[in-house]
Design a protein that fits this description.
By secondary structure, this protein is mainly beta. It is globular and about 55 Å long. The longest helix is centred in the C-terminal third of the chain and has 4 residues. The termini are far apart.
Amino acid sequence: TLTRVRFKARIGAPTCTVMTGAIRAKGMPRRAFFASRTDITTTTTLTPVSSTTTTTAIPCDTCVAACALPEGTTAGTTAGRRDDYEFGGGACPEMYGGPEVFYAATVPAGQLLTVTATPTSFFDVALAIVLDCTDLALSCRGQANRHAEGGVETLTYQNQTGLPQTVFVVVDSPSPFAGNFMLDLQIGPGAP
Protein backbone atom coordinates (compact mmCIF):
# COMPACT_ATOMS: atom_id res chain seq x y z
CA THR A 1 0.00 0.00 0.00
CA LEU A 2 3.02 2.32 0.21
CA THR A 3 4.28 4.37 -2.70
CA ARG A 4 7.62 6.07 -3.31
CA VAL A 5 9.34 4.00 -0.66
CA ARG A 6 12.86 5.18 0.13
CA PHE A 7 15.21 3.00 2.09
CA LYS A 8 18.47 4.26 3.54
CA ALA A 9 20.74 2.08 5.64
CA ARG A 10 24.36 1.73 6.65
CA ILE A 11 26.43 -1.12 7.96
CA GLY A 12 30.07 -0.84 8.86
CA ALA A 13 32.94 -3.31 8.60
CA PRO A 14 32.31 -7.02 7.98
CA THR A 15 32.59 -7.66 11.72
CA CYS A 16 29.71 -5.29 12.53
CA THR A 17 26.57 -7.00 13.73
CA VAL A 18 24.06 -4.13 13.74
CA MET A 19 22.71 -2.00 10.90
CA THR A 20 20.80 1.20 11.56
CA GLY A 21 18.80 3.25 9.13
CA ALA A 22 15.57 4.94 8.19
CA ILE A 23 12.74 4.08 5.85
CA ARG A 24 10.35 6.58 4.28
CA ALA A 25 7.34 6.39 2.03
CA LYS A 26 4.90 8.92 0.64
CA GLY A 27 2.35 9.83 3.31
CA MET A 28 4.30 8.04 6.05
CA PRO A 29 6.68 9.64 8.55
CA ARG A 30 10.27 8.47 8.57
CA ARG A 31 10.76 5.40 10.74
CA ALA A 32 14.09 4.48 12.23
CA PHE A 33 15.06 0.83 12.41
CA PHE A 34 17.91 -1.40 13.38
CA ALA A 35 18.69 -4.88 12.17
CA SER A 36 20.91 -7.60 13.60
CA ARG A 37 23.16 -9.45 11.19
CA THR A 38 22.41 -13.13 11.64
CA ASP A 39 24.73 -14.35 8.91
CA ILE A 40 26.78 -12.47 6.34
CA THR A 41 25.22 -14.50 3.51
CA THR A 42 21.60 -14.29 4.66
CA THR A 43 19.07 -11.50 4.89
CA THR A 44 18.80 -9.56 8.12
CA THR A 45 15.58 -9.22 10.04
CA LEU A 46 14.35 -5.64 10.40
CA THR A 47 13.00 -4.60 13.76
CA PRO A 48 10.95 -1.37 13.65
CA VAL A 49 11.62 0.99 16.54
CA SER A 50 9.26 3.83 15.68
CA SER A 51 6.81 5.06 18.29
CA THR A 52 3.92 3.60 16.29
CA THR A 53 5.24 0.04 16.51
CA THR A 54 7.10 -0.19 19.82
CA THR A 55 5.11 -1.01 22.92
CA THR A 56 7.88 -1.53 25.48
CA ALA A 57 9.69 1.35 27.12
CA ILE A 58 13.21 2.02 25.89
CA PRO A 59 15.55 3.44 28.56
CA CYS A 60 16.43 7.13 28.12
CA ASP A 61 14.34 7.33 24.90
CA THR A 62 12.18 10.29 25.93
CA CYS A 63 12.75 13.46 27.91
CA VAL A 64 10.36 12.43 30.70
CA ALA A 65 12.19 9.07 30.95
CA ALA A 66 15.68 10.64 30.88
CA CYS A 67 18.46 8.67 32.55
CA ALA A 68 20.42 10.29 35.36
CA LEU A 69 23.77 11.61 34.18
CA PRO A 70 26.44 11.64 36.89
CA GLU A 71 29.62 13.70 36.74
CA GLY A 72 32.41 11.97 34.91
CA THR A 73 32.26 9.76 31.84
CA THR A 74 29.31 7.60 30.79
CA ALA A 75 29.15 5.20 27.83
CA GLY A 76 26.02 5.41 25.69
CA THR A 77 24.40 4.58 22.37
CA THR A 78 21.54 5.86 20.26
CA ALA A 79 21.07 2.41 18.70
CA GLY A 80 17.57 1.08 19.24
CA ARG A 81 16.22 4.53 20.14
CA ARG A 82 13.55 6.47 18.24
CA ASP A 83 13.70 9.77 16.42
CA ASP A 84 10.77 11.37 18.23
CA TYR A 85 11.94 14.96 18.54
CA GLU A 86 13.08 17.73 16.23
CA PHE A 87 14.42 21.17 16.96
CA GLY A 88 14.59 23.98 14.43
CA GLY A 89 13.79 27.14 16.37
CA GLY A 90 14.96 29.62 18.98
CA ALA A 91 18.37 28.84 20.43
CA CYS A 92 18.38 25.51 18.55
CA PRO A 93 17.78 26.26 14.85
CA GLU A 94 19.42 23.11 13.49
CA MET A 95 17.20 20.12 12.73
CA TYR A 96 18.49 16.77 13.99
CA GLY A 97 17.25 13.65 12.18
CA GLY A 98 18.73 10.81 14.19
CA PRO A 99 17.49 8.76 17.11
CA GLU A 100 18.13 10.50 20.42
CA VAL A 101 19.00 9.64 24.01
CA PHE A 102 18.05 11.85 26.96
CA TYR A 103 20.00 12.39 30.17
CA ALA A 104 19.08 14.52 33.19
CA ALA A 105 21.63 16.42 35.27
CA THR A 106 21.25 18.76 38.22
CA VAL A 107 23.27 21.97 38.01
CA PRO A 108 23.73 23.89 41.29
CA ALA A 109 23.00 27.62 41.34
CA GLY A 110 25.66 29.66 39.56
CA GLN A 111 27.51 26.57 38.31
CA LEU A 112 28.58 25.77 34.75
CA LEU A 113 27.74 22.43 33.15
CA THR A 114 30.12 21.25 30.42
CA VAL A 115 29.15 18.16 28.44
CA THR A 116 31.37 16.53 25.82
CA ALA A 117 30.31 13.72 23.46
CA THR A 118 33.01 11.61 21.84
CA PRO A 119 31.86 9.08 19.21
CA THR A 120 33.34 5.61 19.66
CA SER A 121 32.06 4.43 16.28
CA PHE A 122 31.82 6.14 12.88
CA PHE A 123 28.99 8.41 13.97
CA ASP A 124 28.12 12.10 13.63
CA VAL A 125 27.14 12.97 17.18
CA ALA A 126 25.22 16.15 18.05
CA LEU A 127 24.17 17.65 21.40
CA ALA A 128 21.41 19.87 22.75
CA ILE A 129 20.50 21.14 26.22
CA VAL A 130 16.82 21.69 27.06
CA LEU A 131 15.08 22.83 30.23
CA ASP A 132 11.48 21.64 29.78
CA CYS A 133 10.25 18.28 28.54
CA THR A 134 6.87 19.71 27.51
CA ASP A 135 8.43 22.01 24.90
CA LEU A 136 11.88 20.97 23.78
CA ALA A 137 12.18 23.51 20.97
CA LEU A 138 11.32 26.60 23.04
CA SER A 139 13.26 25.48 26.11
CA CYS A 140 16.37 24.50 24.15
CA ARG A 141 19.38 26.50 25.37
CA GLY A 142 21.99 25.41 22.87
CA GLN A 143 23.17 22.91 20.29
CA ALA A 144 26.54 21.51 19.27
CA ASN A 145 27.09 20.00 15.85
CA ARG A 146 30.26 21.62 14.56
CA HIS A 147 32.14 18.53 13.38
CA ALA A 148 31.54 15.69 10.92
CA GLU A 149 31.51 11.96 11.67
CA GLY A 150 33.94 11.03 14.41
CA GLY A 151 34.24 14.62 15.68
CA VAL A 152 33.97 15.52 19.37
CA GLU A 153 31.16 17.92 20.35
CA THR A 154 31.09 20.09 23.49
CA LEU A 155 28.27 22.20 24.92
CA THR A 156 28.03 24.35 28.05
CA TYR A 157 25.17 25.75 30.14
CA GLN A 158 25.33 28.04 33.17
CA ASN A 159 22.57 27.95 35.78
CA GLN A 160 21.76 31.58 36.53
CA THR A 161 18.50 30.93 38.41
CA GLY A 162 19.83 31.09 41.99
CA LEU A 163 18.47 27.57 42.70
CA PRO A 164 19.56 24.06 41.66
CA GLN A 165 18.21 23.31 38.18
CA THR A 166 17.55 20.08 36.33
CA VAL A 167 18.61 20.23 32.69
CA PHE A 168 18.22 17.62 29.97
CA VAL A 169 21.14 16.69 27.74
CA VAL A 170 20.07 15.32 24.36
CA VAL A 171 22.52 13.16 22.41
CA ASP A 172 21.38 13.06 18.78
CA SER A 173 22.71 13.15 15.22
CA PRO A 174 21.96 15.25 12.14
CA SER A 175 21.78 12.01 10.12
CA PRO A 176 19.29 9.16 10.61
CA PHE A 177 22.03 6.83 11.82
CA ALA A 178 22.71 5.62 15.34
CA GLY A 179 26.04 5.22 17.05
CA ASN A 180 28.01 4.73 20.24
CA PHE A 181 29.59 7.50 22.28
CA MET A 182 31.26 8.47 25.53
CA LEU A 183 29.59 11.37 27.33
CA ASP A 184 31.64 13.40 29.81
CA LEU A 185 29.87 15.75 32.22
CA GLN A 186 31.68 18.30 34.37
CA ILE A 187 30.14 20.87 36.74
CA GLY A 188 32.19 23.75 38.06
CA PRO A 189 32.23 27.48 38.82
CA GLY A 190 30.66 29.63 36.13
CA ALA A 191 31.37 33.17 35.02
CA PRO A 192 30.46 35.80 37.65
